[in-house]
């Protein structure tokens, strides 16, 4: 595989993850306002696959713990891309991964908790 291909793939994976994270942030924000939020919430799997439609079940506390780090994502246990990310936590329902290299940088730039963040869905990021 050419070096350029790898960068492109890495960037695409990071952007997919960043856009799923944005969906989850909105979901979590809505649920937090409920008087009795459900114990486990079906968040969108934040793996880099564009075709993934999986749901990872996390409590609001577990989700918050992942979001405390801008380059960490919650994915299904068999949805890890070891080439681009490190597994930092393994749970029964989900795995927490940390982005490496270019992917990590994109994750930080698109962090929705950062006021200066870049919109991962904006076309000019690529
Ligand atoms: Zn997935």
Strand arrangement across the biggest beta sheet: 3-5-4
Q: Which term fits the overall shape?
A: globular
Helical/strand content category: alpha+beta
Measured between the Cα atoms of the first and last residue, the distance is 21 Å
- Bound ions, cofactors and other small molecules, one mention each: zinc ion
Indicate the mean pLDDT: 86
The stretches of 5 or more residues where confidence is low (pLDDT under 50) are: none
Determine the number of helices (DSSP H or I, runs of at least 4 residues): 3
Question: Into which percent range does the helicity of residues fall?
Answer: 25-40%
What is the percentage of strand-forming residues?
A: 15-25%
Let me know the number of strands: 5
- What is the radius of gyration computed over CA atoms, rounded to a whole number of angstroms? 14 Å
> How would you spell out the order of helices and strands?
HEEHEEEH
- How many domains? The number is 1
Largest sheet: 3 strands, antiparallel
Task: Write up what this structure looks like.
The chain is built from three helices and five strands, in the order H-E-E-H-E-E-E-H. It is of the alpha+beta class and 126 residues long. The protein is globular and about 50 Å long. The two termini are 21 Å apart. It has one domain. Helix 1 (3-32) packs parallel to helix 3. It binds zinc ion.
């Amino acid at each position: 595989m050419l070096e350029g291909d790898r960068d492109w793939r890495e960037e695409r994976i990071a952007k997919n993850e960043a856009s799923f994270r944005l969906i989850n942030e909105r979901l979590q924000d809505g649920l937090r306002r409920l008087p009795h939020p459900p114990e486990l919430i079906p968040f969108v799997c934040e793996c880099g696959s564009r075709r993934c439609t999986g749901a990872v079940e996390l409590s609001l506390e577990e989700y918050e713990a992942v979001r405390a780090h801008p380059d960490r994502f919650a994915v299904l246990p068999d949805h890890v891309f070891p080439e681009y990310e490190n597994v930092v936590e393994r749970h029964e329902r989900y795995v927490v991964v940390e982005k490496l290299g270019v992917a990590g940088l994109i994750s930080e730039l698109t962090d929705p908790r950062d006021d200066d963040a870049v919109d991962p869905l904006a076309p000019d990021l690529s």
